[in-house]
TrEMBL record:
It comes from the Eukaryota. This is Tudor domain-containing protein. GO terms for biological process: P granule organization; piRNA processing; spermatogenesis. Gene3D superfamilies: 2.30.30.140, 2.40.50.90. It comes from Neotoma lepida. It holds the Pfam family TUDOR.
Length: 226
């Protein structure tokens, strides 16, 4: 699947929604005939087609908030995720790939990537000026997190607090999950939450949440919320 879509401009058609996750069909229109990712995987024997996808649509939530106490404000921090609409077709780039059952995309419209790049620059300047602030990690809290891969700070949500004291964070604009130390976390200012989180979680049409078994992908019975 990485060979088909990663680091390419592809077209995504949204088939269904589950909270902030999107069931999609990916098409590479740069070649003739066009390549549909799901069909290519099935035709090559790497996947089997799912006849029915079960998803609990009643749990669809696009906005979340949690009360925080940080220097800048005592008001609750609020944030949103970028979202698709069912039957919408847009151009995207795949920014993080785990499997056909979980990958992350960026919109390629409305200067979204420029807005994200501008935000990242401002966030880096903000974090460089901040002293250690005793940020207390709690699961689900937004924060600034340091990514050792390139030495920059990015927006994140606390995903898990490990027995070692380190923290797993979800970089919300890109989809990757990394382990960081507590001194690599900072409280985030509300101004950096105005732009919706840009890493849109998707899974490929026909698979639901897929599990690899002996080289083939088969659907599991339930879709697990992240």
């Amino acid at each position: 699947m990485k060979k088909i879509v990663q680091n390419k401009m592809v077209t995504v058609r949204v088939v269904d929604m589950l909270g902030t996750r999107s069931l999609v069909e990916l098409v590479d229109k740069s070649v003739i005939p066009h390549i549909r990712a799901s069909k290519a995987l099935i035709d090559s024997g790497f996947a089997v087609e799912e006849t029915e996808i079960e998803a609990d649509k009643s749990s669809s939530v696009h906005t979340a908030s949690v009360p925080l106490a940080i220097e800048e404000t005592t008001e609750p921090l609020e944030w949103t995720w970028v979202g698709f609409s069912v039957d919408e077709t847009v151009d995207v780039t795949v920014c993080m790939m785990y499997s056909p059952g979980e990958f992350y995309c960026h919109f390629l419209k409305d200067d979204a990537l420029k807005k994200l790049n501008d935000l990242n620059k401002s966030l880096a300047e903000y974090c460089a000026q901040k002293l250690p602030n005793g940020f207390k990690a709690e699961v689900g809290r937004p924060c600034c997190a340091f990514f050792a891969g390139d030495g920059n700070w990015y927006r994140a949500l606390v995903k898990e607090i490990l027995p070692s004291g380190n923290v797993k964070v979800h970089f919300v604009d890109y989809g990757n999950i990394e382990e960081v130390t507590t001194d690599q976390l900072q409280a985030i200012s509300p101004q950096f939450l105005l732009l919706p989180f840009q890493g849109m979680q998707c899974w490929l049409v026909g698979y639901g949440t897929a599990t690899p078994v002996m080289g083939r992908l088969v659907p599991v019975e339930h879709v697990k919320e992240k």
